[in-house]
Request: fold
Amino acid sequence: MKKVGVAILGLGVVGGGTYKILTEHRQKYIQTHGVDISVESVLEVRKERIHALGVDESKVASNISEVCSNPEVDIIIEVMGGVEPAKSYVLAALNAGKSVVTSNKELYCKYGYELEKAAKHNHVGLFYEATCVGGVPVIRALLDNLQGNKITSLIGIINGTTNYILTKMTNDGKSYGEVIKEAQALGYAEADPTSDVDGYDATYKLSILSSICFNKKIPYTEIYREGITNISPVDIAYGKKLGYVIKLLAIGKDSEKGVEVRVHPSFVRVNHPLASVNDSYNAVYITGDSVGDVMLYGRGAGALPTGSAIVGDVIYCATHTQHRYSTFENTETAAPDTKFITNFQSAYYLRFLAADKAGELSKVTSVLGKYGISVAQVVQDIDGNDKEGAVNLILVTHSTRESNIKKAVAAIDKDLTETRVAAVIRVVS
Ligand code: HSE
Reply:
């Protein structure tokens, strides 16, 4: 019987879920994989977590050196989150000849190149399925099952907190401010929700996923990012009337023209498969040249879903002797020949607060026309007039370049004295 010892750094939500799965399923792995996986060490200062999970006190290490020098430990699971001390601990583990499984997307996204270099140098494994989309096995699918493809596009709802907030705003007609407070009270959003609501978390995940998809390093710093804090219930309601739902999308595309990577709120047609991904659920919609479209859906966070991804990596690591590393050059920055498209193309939903009088609409469309923007749909809502008597004028454009929209919107705000731009939201067809 092959024996494999693991250590868990951090017994928080995810560490606790991982501990539970590993201990409860221990007999199963003996039967299914012929490997006895035991938790030999934990690094956690909170005594209440150790007691709540029923961890044997003799397994509690007092520092990282103790974990790394424990001969019973083969694999170290890092579930602490944040960059430091997680980075130093992971490097210490790799340099001590231990394979590492991590759920830390910020760490892997920012320093994966450095960690992988240490893993290669020490001939150990580095696994990170749990960094993206929690329990949804997207990384393994990309690394193994979808290898028969050139992946051309990946569109995902890869942040559960923002999907929960936008779903609540859509269903209850509440403002962002109201919903974020409720979400924090219920524990669905962090006390400091910046990483989720401003889109950082999604850019970390998109960086990791798009690098694998497109087989080239896509640093998170190259990803266009816009969060959800400016989304208003008014636009969600008009979007609904026009047949759209709002989602924070992570979009990656690769073509001969270059790579396009962006995270921003988008209107999605109600019949698009991503439109029905609600609450804190995540999904990734991948297009490959052989398989066509594939959508992976499930829980992107939580103790057991993320623990499920971690344990999958532990078993893979325990049952494979040949470690594998990135198939692209995993460096800090993108390769010099990687071309990024920043002036991307999209359709747009534009809402104006406009004076309800003859000629105003034509002034707006004439500015749009000047920048080559063609209008696909127009709605004027006389019931939606504000205190000054301005009405909501909504236009959905045909696909155009981002730079055209920026110029047109700036020109309308500057030149039209009785119309102002109230919202600009991209529309994914
Ligand atoms: N904060 C993340 C989310 C969960 O809301 O999706 C873990 O990645």
In short: Residues 105-121 form the longest helix (17 residues). DSSP finds 15 helices and 16 strands in the chain. The chain has three domains: 2-131, 143-300, 345-428. The CA atoms of residues 22 and 163 lie 30 Å apart.
